Structure formats: structure tokens, C-alpha cells
Amino acid sequence: MEKEKCQVYFIGAGPGDPELMTIKGQKCIKKADLVLYAGSLVPLDVIACARKDARVLDSSSMTLEQTHSLILETVKSGGIVARIHTGDPSLYGAIKEQMALLDKEGIDYKIIPGVTVSFAVAAAAKISFTLPEKTQTLILTRLSGNTPVPDRERLRELATHNASLAIYLSASNPEGIVKELLAGGYPSDTPVVVGYKVGWPDEVIIPTTISDLSEVVRGVGIRRQAIFLILPGQKDEPTFSRLYSQKFTHSYRSATNTRRHEGY
Fold first, then answer.
1. At what angle do helices 64-76 and 96-105 cross, to 10 degrees?
2. What is the pLDDT of residues 164-197, one digit of tens each?
3. Within 13 Å of residue 22, how many CA atoms lie on the same side as its CB?
4. What pTM, to 2 d.p., does this model score?
5. 8-112 belongs to which homologous superfamily?
6. Which residues of 189-225 are buried (b: 16+ CB within 10 A; e: fewer)?
7. By percentage, how much of the chain surpasses pLDDT 70?
8. pLDDT of 250
9. Which residues of the chain does CATH 3.40.1010.10 include?
């Protein structure tokens, strides 16, 4: 049997629901000799497909050096590693430093994308981030905390665009979110959707507004694992895409002659 070239996989576990993980991600977990997952963020159901004889370890209390040592040990013994990240690894996934260590060792790796939580919340709340003639931009960001945010990316600066926003890693400071959004020019009655532990059995989806956001978050007792969707234009009179309009021509369909259509 030919030895597999790639031995390390960074896998996006999605928001928590194991059925929202990609088939490719599940296949990698099933064949892995070492499964490293952050138990504080990744539910056990996501890794339930691991082999019975695989080494399955919670990395939430480990340092970068400790996880790298485990990966290196497995690779050198000819094994395969599944490194599980919540959501999508490329977004707040802290994979850059892990990849740098693997590059230094000359170890090949692959990244398997996952469903990031903002899209899972949008689906659960049945909303669209983009609205024709209202907003065509979605900004993914966070408040400054243990990881600083560049001044040019401060929430109040991004808020001046009045686009849709998905705010990650900021549940401990809802008052700060409200202050920055209002300072950036959002009306206080702008719709907000709060998603808590989305994809987990105890998920909570709460529609609210910027003005009521702090009270809602504090009232429910949310302190972490929450995301905030700021949704301008959601309560306006709806406008619709021209994609399926009779009068819109594209490479697969010609516009209907309105006069002939009305004559039928």
C-alpha cells in the first residue's frame, strides 16, 4: 500500500452540528491516528467518527509547543493527524503559527474548510446578509481584546460603511459593541441577531436591536461562544434581485418580451 504523502490535516468542524462538517473532514477524522480537538469549542459528537484505536486528545489546555510535539511524534511514526478547529480554520483559527512550525520541519499539510458560525446563524435565523439596493457587503470582525485590533479596523471605523456585520469573539463586552456601532453611525433600531452555541443541542437564536443588545445578552447570561449579526435594511420594504426577473438577460436566459408576455 502506497504511503500517504500528506499526514496532517487542519479540519473545520463547523459550528457544532456534526452534520455540518464536510464529508472530506469526516473522512480524515476516520482515518487519523491522532485526533486533536479543542474540547471547549468542539462537541464530542463531531469526533465520534474517530477510530476506536485512535489517540483522541483535547487540546484546550495545551500549549502550541505541546500540540506540535504530539503532531511531530505521530508524523515521524508514519501516522496521520486530524487537527480539529471550530468553524473554519482560516477565520480566528490560530493556524498560522501551527503551519509555520510544520513548514520548518518540512511536513506537508492540508486545510479542509468548514462552515463558519456566522453563516450557520444566518441560516437558522432565515436571513440574508446581502439585500439588493440595500447592502452588498458583509464584514467579519471582532472587538479588540487579548488579541489587539488595528486602529483602522476598530468597530466604529467599520461601522461607517453601514454594511452587514458579523462580530466574533466579543460576547464578554456587549456594551462595547453597542458603543462602537452607535459611534460608527448605525441607527439604534438596527436589527441584530444573536447566536449562542449554534449547532449545539442548547443553541439560542435571539432577534433584537442595537439598543437592546446589552440587556438581551446580560439577561440570557451569555458570556462566550456567541456571535452578533448586525443587519441594516432587514426591516425595510424588500427589494429583490434581478437575476430571475423576466426583464433581465444573462448568458443562460433572454429577457421576456413584456408586451407578448402580457398578451398570453
1. 40
2. 999 999 999 999 999 999 999 999 999 999 999 9
3. 18
4. 0.86
5. Tetrapyrrole methylase, N-terminal domain (3.40.1010.10)
6. ebbbbbbbbbbeeebeebebbbebbbebbeeeebeeb
7. 88
8. 57
9. 8-112
The CATH homologous superfamily to which domain 117-230 belongs is: Tetrapyrrole methylase, C-terminal domain (3.30.950.10)
Strand 81-85 relative to strand 34-37: parallel, antiparallel, unpaired? parallel
Q: What is the structure's pLDDT at 235?
A: 84
Strand partners, 14: 87
CA distance 203 to 182: 28
In single-letter form, the type of residue at position 67 comes to T
Could you tell me where in the chain the CATH 3.30.950.10 domains are found? 117-230
- Residue closest to 208 by CA, chosen among 224, 197, 195, 221: 195
CA distance 252 to 89: 36
d(CA 205, CA 210): 15
The answer to whether residues 216 and 194 touch, using CB atoms and an 8 Å cutoff, is yes
Given the C-alpha cell 440595500, which residue does it identify?
134
